[in-house]
Structure prediction request, 275 residues.
Amino acid sequence: MAVQFDIEFINDLLRRVAKAEILPRFRHLAAGAVRIKSSPLDLVTDADVAAEVMIASELRARYPRALIVGEEAAAADPHVLDGLDSADLAFVVDPIDGTSNFAAGMGLFGVILAVLAQGEVVAGIIYDPLADDSAIAVKGEGAWRVDALGRRTRLQVAALAPFEAMIGTLSWRYFPLEQRPSILAAATGFGGNFDFRCAAQQYRLMASGNCHFMLYYRLMPWDHAAGYLLLREAGGYAAMLDGREYRPSILEGGYLCATDADSWHSLRRLLLGRA
Prediction:
């Protein structure tokens, strides 16, 4: 039986959570409301925690048998990830992606939610609280942007471009040391490179046709599962660097997004010297 979920309910939930728990704290975080997790670049705020609690509570009430994996819950207990490949229905939640930006008062952050069925991504939403709009994908139904009035605009990746005209993001920081020189050397041949410190906004940018590639190594599912489907349903191509299909249970190993399969193979050769 096909997995059942209500994408409109989920989108409305993210909007309500942002209005209740995220936006009132933006640029108004009290002393002690920002804490370091694993490193100075890995932060959590009171807004992250409150938003995740509200999202998880409402999802649990609506879908009592579903597995719910939130970034902050997983930070406290990594074993919550263990059921991603087997759960009939799972929700993977990043209550605030781009927490460092949020904590600094910068507007580059978003809320991410992916819907999984036995480890496969079947829907994804990336919500921008400041713009009050969502990028949404449902497997086999395409990808679209929904604004605050409910109006839909179909999303489509960029047209093909030569290397020297391409722009994209190269998140090389987690790659093994021996792979970094070729990535950084290749970067000089592109039209431009950017890093928003926010996968939510980067996936939205690419799915709407405004950049050509993204390269990552560390792959936490709350950062990438929804964006992967968004990109694929917008006509793009993404896979692990070894050619495997992406799955949210894979946490590292290198992952490349491109506008199509041919560009993906060309970019992999350029960036890492692999055929």
